[in-house]
C-alpha cells in the first residue's frame, strides 16, 4: 500500500513565534487522525529544531532544499546529512521556485536526490510544467523528462524513500488549481514513467501541489493516483492544513 502524505512547505515564512503557535495547533488538530495520512512540516531550515521540539515526534519534519555536496567550503549551504542529523525525515528537491529563481537544473536535482537518499532522508521530488509548456501541449513530455532525470541515480533499494510531487508551475501560489481529472492524468503518466524505468511504481507515493486548499483537497485526493498533497500557502493556517490532512479518504 502506498503512503498517504500531506506536506506543508512554509517556504521563507515564519518566525519562532509562528512555530510556537502553529505547530501546537496542527498537532492538536490532527489528534486523532485515522485516515492513514502522514503529516509533514517543512519549515525554513533555521526552525527545524524548534518545529521538531513542538511536534513531540507526532509530525514528520523536512527541509526545503539541500546542497549537492556532503560537506566543505560551500558557504550558506546545508547538506542532506546535516538535515538528517538535525532530525529531519524528508527533503524537498527541485521545487519550481528553486528551479526558476535559483537556476537549479535537472542535473543538480538528480545529484540532490542521490544525496538525500544516501543520507537516509526521503526525497520529495518536485516536477511540473509552466503555463507556456502546457499551452504548447508539452506538459507530459516536460514532466516525464524531469522525472527520468531526477530518479536516474536511484538504486533499487532506495525507491521506498522516493516521493514525487507534481506541481504545475502555473498553479503554485496563484489560486489556480489543476482540475482533479488533469492532475490524475499527469499522475498516471508519472506512474507509467516510473514503471518503464523498472521502479516499483505502484508503491511510490505521488503528491499533487498547487493552490491546494481545504475546499478542493477532497476532489484531488479522491483520484486513484493522487496519494496526497504538497501544500504551500495553506500550510501556514493550522485549521486549513488540518482540514486538508483530513480530506484524504480512509485507508484503502
Ligand atoms: C508549494 O509551495 O509547493 C505550493 C504548492 O504552494 P501553494 O500551495 O501556495 O500553491
Question: What can you tell me about this protein's structure?
Answer:
- The protein is α/β, with parallel strands linked by helices.
- It contains 10 helices and 8 strands.
- The protein has helices at 16-30, 48-55, 80-85, 96-102, 106-118, 131-135, 139-150, 180-196, 214-221, 238-246, and strands at residues 4-9, 37-42, 60-63, 90-93, 122-127, 162-166, 205-209, 228-231.
- It has an 8-stranded parallel beta barrel with strand order 1-2-3-4-5-6-7-8, surrounded by 6 helices.
- Helix 9 links the parallel strand 7 and strand 8 (228-231).
- The longest helix has 17 residues, at 180-196.
- The relative contact order is 0.17.
- The mean pLDDT is 96.
- Residues 9, 11, 167, 172-173, 209-212, 230-234 line the site of phosphoenolpyruvate.
- Phosphoenolpyruvate binds at residues 9, 11, 167, 172-173, 209-212, 230-234.
General shape: globular
What's the end-to-end separation, in Å? Answer: 8 Å
The SSE string, one letter per element, is EHEHEHEHHEHHEHEHEH
Any low-confidence stretches, pLDDT <50, length ≥5?
Answer: none
Structural class: alpha/beta
Mean pLDDT across the residues is 96
Number of helices: 10
Estimate what percentage of residues fall within beta strands: 15-25%
**Number of DSSP strand runs:** 8
Helix percent band: 25-40%
List the ions, cofactors and other small molecules found in this model: phosphoenolpyruvate
- Our Rg estimate from Cα atoms comes to 17 Å
Widest sheet: strand order? Answer: 1-2-3-4-5-6-7-8
Largest sheet: 8 strands, parallel, barrel
Amino acid at each position: 500500500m502506498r503512503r498517504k502524505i500531506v506536506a506543508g512547505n512554509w517556504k521563507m515564512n515564519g518566525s519562532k513565534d509562528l512555530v510556537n503557535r502553529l505547530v501546537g495547533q496542527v498537532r492538536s488538530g490532527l489528534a486523532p487522525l485515522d485516515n492513514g495520512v502522514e503529516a509533514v512540516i517543512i519549515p525554513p531550515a533555521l526552525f527545524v529544531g524548534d518545529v521538531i521540539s513542538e511536534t513531540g515526534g507526532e509530525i514528520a519534519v523536512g527541509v526545503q532544499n539541500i546542497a549537492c555536496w556532503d560537506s566543505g567550503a560551500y558557504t550558506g549551504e546545508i547538506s542532506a546529512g546535516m538535515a538528517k542529523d538535525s532530525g529531519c525525515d524528508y527533503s524537498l528537491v527541485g521545487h519550481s521556485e528553486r528551479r526558476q529563481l535559483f537556476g537549479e537544473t535537472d542535473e543538480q536535482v538528480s545529484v540532490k536526490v542521490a544525496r538525500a537518499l544516501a543520507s537516509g532522508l526521503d526525497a520529495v521530488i518536485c516536477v511540473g510544467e509552466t503555463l507556456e509548456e502546457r499551452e504548447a501541449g508539452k506538459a507530459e513530455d516536460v514532466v516525464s523528462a524531469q522525472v527520468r532525470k531526477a530518479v536516474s541515480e536511484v538504486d533499487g533499494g532506495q525507491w521506498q524513500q522516493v516521493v514525487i510531487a507534481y506541481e504545475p508551475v502555473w498553479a503554485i501560489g496563484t489560486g489556480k488549481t489543476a482540475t482533479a481529472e488533469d492532475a490524475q492524468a499527469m499522475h498516471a503518466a508519472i506512474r507509467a514513467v516510473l514503471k518503464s524505468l523498472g521502479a516499483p511504481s505502484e508503491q511510490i507515493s505521488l503528491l499533487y501541489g498547487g493552490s491546494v486548499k481545504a475546499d478542493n483537497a477532497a476532489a484531488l485526493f479522491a483520484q486513484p493516483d493522487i496519494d496526497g498533497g504538497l501544500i504551500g500557502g495553506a500550510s501556514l493556517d493550522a485549521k486549513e492544513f488540518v482540514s486538508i490532512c483530513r480530506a484524504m479518504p480512509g485507508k484503502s
